[in-house]
Amino acid sequence: MADKRKIKTEASSSSSNINNGRGESVVVDVGRRRSSCGYCKSDSNTSITHGLWAHSLTVHDYQALLDRGWRRSGCFLYKPEMEKTCCPSYTIRLKASDFVPSKEQVRVSKRMQRFLEGSLTVKKPDEQNEPSSDAIRLSDSDDHGKADNSIENYLSNEIDSIVVTCTQRGEFPNDINAPKASVKPVAPSKRKLQAEEAHDLLYSSNISFQISAALKRGNKTIQKDNQSIDPNPKLIAEMLSGHLSNLTPPLHLSVKACNGHINFYSTEIQPPHTESITGKPSSVCKDSSSTSGTKGISVNKQSLEIRLKRSGFDPEEYALYRRYQIKVHNDTPDHVTESSYKRFLVDSPLIFVPTNGDVSVPPCGFGSFHQQYLINGKLIAVGVIDILPKCLSSKYLFWDPDLASLSLGKYSALQEINWVRENEKHCSSLQYYYLGYYIHSCSKMRYKAAYRPSELLCPLRYQWVSFDIAKRLLDRKAYVVLSDYANLLDEGDMSANNNNNNKKNVVEDQTQRGEEEEEDERFGEGSNDVRMDGDEEMSEVAFDESDESDDDDGTGSLTPVEMQKDVSNIVIGLKGMHLKYKDIRQAFGANERNYLENQLHKYATVVGTDLSERMIYSLG
């Protein structure tokens, strides 16, 4: 009994020391993992990482893991085994206050400003000769006929979007071959035939009749109130109108189903044809909640609003993500599920830290967030980010495929860099912008170096090295101990005071920027504007505890570095208790002890001594 009381006392003490009032990091070490590589597209499992499942993770511990080359996908943490993996991935960051935008990045900002001011019309990638539905605006013109046509296109595309939403929610069959909606103006002579409130009727769509006919041909039913119902135009029109009711405030229109038609009525007294689809200048919105923030940007023609909210599931975000993955990354619809989306971009082990007036915490707090971009209230992009004690870590971005020409990936990166600059005033330690992994051997990932001046993390000594230096080393070989650059570069290359070399470096810098800008144009919105390529993250989502591990069963020989690690102070989580390994070592048999110590040595090597003694190594 005395021994048990002693163990419980020590367990309580260990937990108290780790907590420090900031919560506890609890992880499960899943060891080495092999998978196919999304970068070099190898046929075999050549991508090698070390993985952890995080039940909970403090923002300070995750910051420390980032600075040792780790990264998260949902609640899964992974770190490339740089010497063994096919495509070595280097953590890249820049100091926001030192950022100097390139000509291309300046052009992106100006392009967005022109779009918001109404002087730039955005067209869909597949409809270059037609007005874009998502521009939600008209060019300045006295041609009322063109204005009406743009309104009709906008409303038609909104209905198409709602049909997709109804399909995703299971209200319509997944295999429905729905026709494209067509919204047309209603002539005064025909209004009484289609509507009860005919005097205000402006536009109408008969899409419900077409959907009903398509469903009947396929012997399909629709779902309403958990019941299967035979399709009819009136019911379908009511379902679509219900979803459309909140989509038309910029147009001053109301929506109502009538005899199977979807009708749009004017809510203004003035003649409807003088109204164009333009955004109203928005005032700055202030969120009273300490867990989110909003800033508005006043514009002449359209309103851009950027909202910062805690990570959580949002049906509108998911619908946008689904469109993005299918259209941009060519994912099949059955692959982009709500559960996979949640695991990938919603679930987070990070323990939220509110500001509570603490000057060392930004107003929004620390944790995982979604940054929403809205134009006239319509969601066009979502940046998934982590806000940590030293940085904003950009995880993923998805955006409206119809707005590809706005370069929303580049634009959001500039906004995130600016966010760090602004919030450094509130939290002096928050200075950096982390862009994830830089892979020099993958041309589609080199765009990250366009955000200058950046630096890469040395994979051995975890020191930060200027990208301009690291690039010369990586041009020679894929895996390099970057902190050894003084020994690896020729003396002439390192002579900073040599005028000839300085001139050469300037030329190289200009050439590099030109190549990067050409590369941006070449890979375009399909990959380059996504700061974290889909394969980079999604390849890890498939990992779970049932995956086959590497052929190393965990009992193989340790490297000299791993053997030097002291594992006695690693805190073990076992049956609700937290105990240092040295205090429970004798509770294991010889074989169990050898196996566990082997695992602990490897764990201490990949996370570092400090973190291994701070985080809880869970055994269940």
Give an account of the 3D structure.
The chain has 620 residues and is α+β, with helices and mostly antiparallel strands. Among the domains are: 90-110 and 280-541, no CATH class; 138-274, Gyrase A, domain 2 (2-Layer Sandwich), CATH 3.30.1360. 34% of the residues lie in helices and 20% in strands. It has 18 helices and 22 strands. It has helices spanning 2-19, 59-66, 103-117, 144-168, 191-194, 207-217, 233-244, 315-328, 338-346, 408-423, 467-474, 485-488, 499-527, 534-541, 560-563, 581-584, 590-607, 609-612, and strands spanning 26-35, 47-56, 71-73, 76-80, 90-95, 183-185, 201-205, 222-224, 227-229, 253-258, 261-266, 293-297, 304-310, 367-375, 378-387, 391-399, 432-438, 454-457, 464-466, 571-574, 577-580, 616-618. The strands form 4 sheets. Strands 12-13-14-15-16-17-5-18-19 form a 9-stranded mixed sheet, sandwiched between helices. Strands 3-4-2-1-22-20-21 form a 7-stranded mixed sheet, with helices on both faces. It has a 4-stranded antiparallel sheet with strand order 6-7-11-10. Strand 16 (391-399), helix 10 and strand 17 form a beta-alpha-beta unit. The protein is globular, with a radius of gyration of 28 Å. The two termini are 23 Å apart.
List the helices and strands and how they pair.
Elements: H1 2-19, E1 26-35, E2 47-56, H2 59-66, E3 71-73, E4 76-80, E5 90-95, H3 103-117, H4 144-168, E6 183-185, H5 191-194, E7 201-205, H6 207-217, E8 222-224, E9 227-229, H7 233-244, E10 253-258, E11 261-266, E12 293-297, E13 304-310, H8 315-328, H9 338-346, E14 367-375, E15 378-387, E16 391-399, H10 408-423, E17 432-438, E18 454-457, E19 464-466, H11 467-474, H12 485-488, H13 499-527, H14 534-541, H15 560-563, E20 571-574, E21 577-580, H16 581-584, H17 590-607, H18 609-612, E22 616-618
Parallel strand pairs: 1-22, 16-17, 20-22
Antiparallel strand pairs: 1-2, 2-4, 3-4, 5-17, 5-18, 6-7, 7-11, 8-9, 10-11, 12-13, 13-14, 14-15, 15-16, 18-19, 20-21
Helix pairs in contact: 3-10, 6-7
Biased composition (Low complexity): 12-24
Biased composition (Acidic residues): 534-554
Function: Involved in the post-translational conjugation of arginine to the N-terminal aspartate or glutamate of a protein. This arginylation is required for degradation of the protein via the ubiquitin pathway.
